[in-house]
Amino acid sequence: MIADILAQRHRYSGLCSRFDAAFAFLELLPAGAALGRHDIDGDNCFALVQTYSSKPLAQAKFEAHRKYIDIQFIQSGAETLLWAPLSALTVTTEPYVEERDVAFFATPSQFTPLTLKTGEFAIFYPTDGHAPCLECGMASEVRKVVIKVRV
Predict the structure, then answer these.
(1) Distance between CA 130 and CA 147 in Å, rounded?
(2) What pTM, to 2 d.p., does this model score?
(3) What is the DSSP string of 103-124?
(4) What is the pLDDT of residues 42-77, one digit of tens each?
(5) Which of 16, 25, 53, 69 has the fewest CB atoms within 10 Å distance of its CB?
(6) Contacts 24+ apart (CB under 8 A), 111-114
(7) What's the N-to-C CA distance of the chain in angstroms?
(8) Is 2-150 in CATH node 2.60.120.370?
(9) Which alpha helices (DSSP H) does 29-149 contain, by range?
(10) Sign of the CA dihedral 80, 141, 133, 68?
(11) Contact 88/58 with Cβ under 8 angstroms?
């Protein structure tokens, strides 16, 4: 897991050949871009623009992916995400669904909270369990872009 601000994106371009295109998309994305899917490189790299109200920590739902890396960027608002290594997610609540590239897990006994604010991002690899969309003290409206980068 990596967390940083968009201005520091250049530090991560060598980690994956598709990161440059993903971060370039984020830099050029207007505040009022349409919600939904935006193709960057077809199924190899695409963005999901979404808005929602953050949820209480009690509603945390850990997830993990196999085929995609998540770049989760907060375009406006703030949220808490929980992180744990995949090896710590020992209780599966919803088995892996290949078409959606996701499995869900019970909250582990130990995890690391991460607060992201406007202009900040986190990168979650397939070895990173994460529970997104959570409140930072109180519910707030969040506009987030999740870029799915094929491994």
Answers:
(1) 15
(2) 0.95
(3) EEEPPPSS-EEEEEETTEEEEE
(4) 999 999 999 999 999 999 999 999 999 999 999 999
(5) 53
(6) 111/62, 111/82, 111/83, 111/84, 112/82, 112/83, 112/84, 113/80, 113/81, 113/82, 113/83, 114/1, 114/3, 114/80, 114/81, 114/82, 114/83
(7) 15
(8) yes
(9) none
(10) negative
(11) no
